[in-house]
Amino acid sequence: MASTHSTADWVTERTSMSLDSGADRHLWEGGRRYHAYREGRYSLPNDEIEQQREELMHILVMDILEHELYLAPMAEPPTKVMDIATGIGLWAIEMGDRYPEANILGVDLSPIQPTSVPPNVTFQVDDVEDTWVHENDYDFIHMREASGYMRSTPAVIESAIAHLKPGGWFELQEFHWVAEKEDGTIDHKIPVNRYMDHMMSAAASTEGRKIPIVPEIGDIMKRAGFVDIKKKTYRVPYGTWHSDPVARRRGAVLTLNAELLLPTSDKVLGYIGVTPEQAEALYAECVDMFHDSSIHCYATYYVWYGRKPEEVEDSAATSR
């Protein structure tokens, strides 16, 4: 049956979606709580345990980046900012505190953000994998720890560049969870790498999608039209084996974060025939690996950023 809603009705519904509009209903499965708006679009829970994990991730990333919220070399502080998949909204809130003259919008499928926030910060329940109804004059769009859970990260990045003003910046911050040895080699027999192989197979077999390999994000940004693309990487140890106290501290937080993340994978792994018992055994192997001081492995934190070309650059390219 055809919808009776006009395009204008649909746009009004999307742009007026707020935290008290009914989008705050949640679904429960296996003792964990999930988003109800666009049910199933995002595989992770949104309950208290997951919110604690997100807070730990924010603490870890701020430590890694030495308390910088972004690395994009903007000439002036941003004035109109969007935070894609904002989660509990800590990044958006801190941006609002640091830049009181800026307007910060955090977008997420779940209305789990606090209500007491800086006056220049707004949260909206929406799906960034759908057609964007936002204006196209943002000067900064940020995304953290979300690309691995999207059906099409390239499509989201294309939407981001379309909604930046000329000269605006996009930044993606993400962990590459594949464990590398100290010499940079990868042993696919290591438990966490077997887990990652399973997750990638599950994504490909159930939705025909490829979980983006974070080192390839720069190529995706280039195809979308970004210029001045740069990356910065930071190695973070799995576990507390490292002799450097800063690395050891970061490794401890990363390990706790990973231990909270692993049990959320039962449903996804089930798509490729991994039983709950087999999943639990794999999680236990990963945890043992994290706490085995003889296994020296790193995850890598990536920061990719790039700029939307100025209109004059577009014109010059067209004339050639």
Key attributes of the depicted protein:
10 helices; 22% strand; alpha/beta; 320 residues; Rossmann fold; globular; disordered C terminus; 7-stranded mixed sheet
Account of the 3D structure:
The chain has 320 residues and is α/β, with parallel strands linked by helices. Helix content is 36%, strand content 22%. It has ten helices and nine strands. A seven-stranded mixed beta sheet has the order 5-4-3-6-7-9-8, with helices on both faces. Strands 1-2 form a two-stranded antiparallel sheet. The protein is globular. It starts with 6 loop residues before the first helix and ends with a helix. Residues 1-24, 35-40 and 315-320 have low confidence and may be disordered.
What are the segments in which pLDDT stays under 50 over at least 5 consecutive residues? Answer: 1-24, 35-40, 315-320
Q: Helices and strands: which structural class?
A: alpha/beta
CATH architecture: 3-Layer(aba) Sandwich
Read across the widest sheet, the strand sequence of neighbours is 5-4-3-6-7-9-8
Main sheet attributes: strand count, strand direction, barrel closure: 7 strands, mixed
Please work out how many helical segments DSSP would assign.
10
CATH superfamily: Vaccinia Virus protein VP39
Order of helices and strands: HEEHEHEEEHEHHEHHHEH
Mean pLDDT: 83
Strand content: 15-25%
**Oligomeric state of the chains in view:** single chain
Rounded radius of gyration (Å): 20 Å
Q: Helix fraction?
A: 25-40%
In total, the number of strands is 9
